[in-house]
Amino acid sequence: MLNHVEKQVPLEGCGLLAGKKDRVENVIVVQNQAQSPVRFVMDPYEQLQAFNWIEAHGLDLLGIFHSHPAGPETVSVTDIAEAAYEVIHLIWSRTKGHWQARGFWIEAGLATEVSLQIVE
Ligand SMILES: [Zn+2]
Fold it and tell me: How far is the CA of 56 from the centre of ligand 1 (A)?
């Protein structure tokens, strides 16, 4: 994920997280159709292909990630307004060249931060 979002700078990068229960097993990169530094719109064809892949592998969509190359560290008003799936929204934000990831659960117009755990 970090590789991908780093490569997209100064544009936002995005993709999907697939897995089982609350454990992510696969990261699927999707092109940002918006090609914007402040917005992301997943390429609909790649998104559909990714959904098919996830289903074909018996996995669930657990999260959507995207980057904020120039901040903020949290979900934006647009992110909350456009959240179409009840999954974790992972935000990669960059401050002074350092990336950090934070996860949010968005429901009914409200974002709640969730804790993330890196597992091997
Ligand atoms: Zn955003």
Answer: 29
Q: How far is ligand 1, taken at its centre, from the CA of residue 49, in Å? A: 22
pTM exceeds cut of 0.90: yes
- pLDDT (tens digit, 9 = 90+) per residue, 9-67? 999 999 999 999 989 999 999 999 999 999 999 999 999 999 999 999 999 999 999 99
CA of 1 to the centre of ligand 1 (A): 15
The separation between CA 106 and the C-alpha centre of its own chain, rounded to angstroms, equals: 12
What is the gyration radius of the CA atoms in the chain, in angstroms?
13
Q: In angstroms, what is the span from residue 2 Cα to ligand 1's centroid?
A: 15
Rounded to whole angstroms, the Cα distance separating 54 from 64 reads 13
- How far apart CA 104 and CA 70 sit, in angstroms, is 18
Distance from residue 75's CA to the centre of ligand 1 (Å): 5
